[in-house]
Design goal:
Number of domains: 2
Helix content: 40-55%
CATH class of the largest domain: Alpha Beta
Distance between the termini: 71 Å
Shape: globular
Strand order of the largest sheet: 5-6-7-8-9-11-12-13
CATH architecture of the largest domain: Alpha-Beta Barrel
Strand content: 15-25%
CATH superfamily of the largest domain: Ribulose bisphosphate carboxylase, large subunit, C-terminal domain
Length: 421
C-alpha cells in the first residue's frame, strides 16, 4: 500500500519539452525511476515509491535561464507540484534535502529548476525538536529584554590581536548591548584563537554586567572541523558563554542538528553562502524552504538579511523572510529573525512597518561602532529609533524632541546615517 504521507514540493521549471513531461522526468529521477527503463523497477516499486506530479501550471515561453547541452531560443516555463512518499525519506534531514534538492538541478532537460515551497508531513516535523531557546529563551538570557533586541558584530572582523579585541568587547558590553557576535570570517586563527576570545569576552562581559546589570550575550563562532564542534561548544559553555554561532550553509544541516542535540546555549544560525543556492531565481531553493529545514535542525536565531541593506534581496523579500520565521512549524519554538547588513536608526521604522513585530534581533555594525558619540550612544539611539517606530513617531520628530530634552544620541545618529537636518 502506498504511503499517504508525502513531502509536497513546488518547483519553478523551464524545459524544451512539455512541462508535464519535464516534471515527470524529474520526479522519476528523484525517486524510483531513471533515464532508461531498468528491470528492477517493478509496478510494485513504482506504485509505492515513485514521486508523483500533482499539478502543473504552464507559464508560457521565455528565454532559457540556465545553460545546458542544447541552446534553444525559447523554453516552456511552469510551476510543478511534486509529491515524494515519506517512506522514501523517513525523517532524516540529509535524505530530505538530497531528495527534493539534489541531482534534479543537474538534469539537462531543465533550463531552470528552483524549489519554491515545501510542505512537510506532520510526522516529519514532529521528529525534529527545533530551536531549544528561540525567541523566549533568548530574551530571558538577555535579562528579559523587551522590544527589538540590539546587537552588533565585532569590527574589524579579522586581524585584531587580543588587546584590541578586549577593548572592543569592553566598550560594547559597557554599552549594555544585547548581543555581540563574531564575524562569520572569524573562526580560530592563530593570532586570536577562539579559546582566547572566549576567555577575554566572557571576562569583559561579566565585569560590565556588574556595573550595568545587563547580561550581554556573545555569539562565538564555532564553525570549523566537524570533529572539534563539540569541543568548541563545551569551551564556550564552560567559560560562561551564552551563545554559539554556526555558519549553517557551510557546515550543513546535519551538523546543525547534531549541535542541537547537546548545545546548552542558543545557536546563532548564520547564512553565509546561502545565496549561492538562493540568489538565482531559476536555481536552488527559496529562503522560505531553507528556513524550515534550518528551524527543524535547531537554529535559535536565523539571519534574514535586512531592509535597506547592502545585499541583493529587496525589502519586500526581506520582510517575507521575517514573516516566514513567524509562521508555525509544528509545536517548535520560533527562531529569532536576525537582521544584518547596513542596519541603523533609519531602518527601524520601515522594518516595523513591514513586519509589525519587535521579536527581532537587529545587528548593526556601523550603526553602533560608527556613532559619533561612541558605541553606547549607538546602542541607545537604536533603542530610541525602535521606540519611535513602535509609537508611530517619525524619526526626525523623535530625534529633535529627544535632543531638546538633553538626549542628542538619536539626532546625531540620524544625521550620520540618514541625513537628518
Amino acid at each position: 500500500m502506498r504511503d499517504q504521507r508525502v513531502v509536497r514540493c513546488t518547483y519553478y521549471l523551464e524545459s524544451e519539452i512539455a512541462p508535464e513531461r519535464a516534471a515527470s522526468a524529474m520526479a522519476g529521477e528523484q525517486s524510483s525511476g531513471t533515464f532508461v527503463a531498468v528491470p528492477g523497477e517493478s509496478p510494485r516499486i513504482r506504485e509505492r515509491h515513485a514521486a508523483r506530479v500533482a499539478d502543473v501550471q504552464n507559464l508560457g515561453l521565455r528565454s532559457p535561464s540556465l545553460p545546458s547541452r542544447t541552446r534553444p531560443d525559447a523554453v516552456r516555463a511552469a510551476l510543478a507540484v511534486v509529491e515524494f512518499p515519506m517512506e522514501n525519506i523517513g525523517t532524516d534531514l540529509a535524505t530530505l534535502q538530497t531528495t527534493v534538492a539534489g541531482n534534479l538541478f543537474e538534469l539537462g532537460e531543465l533550463f531552470a529548476c528552483r524549489l519554491q515551497d515545501i510542505e512537510l508531513p506532520d510526522e516529519f516535523v514532529a521528529a525534529h525538536r527545533g530551536p531549544a531557546f528561540g525567541i523566549p529563551g533568548t530574551r530571558k538570557l538577555m535579562g528579559d529584554v523587551e522590544g527589538a533586541m540590539i546587537g552588533t558584530i565585532v569590527k574589524p572582523n579579522v586581524g585584531m590581536v587580543e588587546d584590541e579585541f578586549r577593548q572592543v568587547v569592553r566598550e560594547l558590553a559597557r554599552a549594555s548591548i544585547d548581543l555581540i557576535k563574531d564575524d562569520e570570517l572569524m573562526t580560530d586563527p592563530a593570532y586570536l584563537p577562539l579559546e582566547r576570545r572566549v576567555a577575554v569576552a566572557t571576562e569583559e562581559i561579566r565585569e560590565a554586567e556588574q556595573t550595568t546589570g545587563h547580561p550581554t550575550m556573545y555569539a562565538f563562532n564555532i564553525t570549523g572541523d566537524l570533529a572539534g564542534l563539540r569541543r568548541r561548544h563545551d569551551m564556550v559553555v564552560e567559560a560562561g558563554g551564552r551563545c554559539v554561532m554556526l555558519n549553517v550553509p557551510v557546515m550543513g544541516l546535519p551538523a546543525l542538528a547534531w549541535l542541537r542535540e547537546f548545545s546548552a546555549v542558543p545557536v546563532h544560525g548564520h547564512r553565509a553562502g546561502l545565496a549561492g543556492s538562493m540568489r538565482a531565481p531559476a536555481l536552488g531553493m527559496s529562503y522560505r524552504v531553507w528556513q524550515q529545514l534550518a528551524r527543524l535542525a535547531g537554529a535559535d536565531h536565523l539571519h534574514v538579511s535586512g531592509l535597506g541593506s547592502k545585499f541583493y534581496e529587496t525589502d519586500d523579500e526581506v520582510a517575507a523572510n521575517v514573516r516566514s520565521l513567524f509562521e508555525p512549524l509544528g509545536d517548535s519554538l520560533g527562531p529569532v529573525p536576525t537582521l544584518s547588513s547596513g542596519q541603523n536608526v533609519t531602518t527601524a521604522a520601515p522594518t516595523y512597518a513591514a513586519v509589525g513585530s519587535t521579536d527581532l534581533l537587529m545587528l548593526a555594525g556601523g550603526g553602533v561602532a560608527a556613532h559619533p558619540d561612541g558605541p553606547a550612544a549607538g546602542v541607545h539611539s537604536l533603542r530610541a529609533a525602535w521606540a519611535a517606530a513602535v509609537g508611530g513617531v517619525p524619526l526626525e520628530s523623535a530625534a529633535h524632541a529627544a535632543a531638546e530634552a538633553g538626549d542628542p544620541a538619536l539626532l546625531h545618529a540620524g544625521r550620520t546615517f540618514g541625513g537628518l537636518a
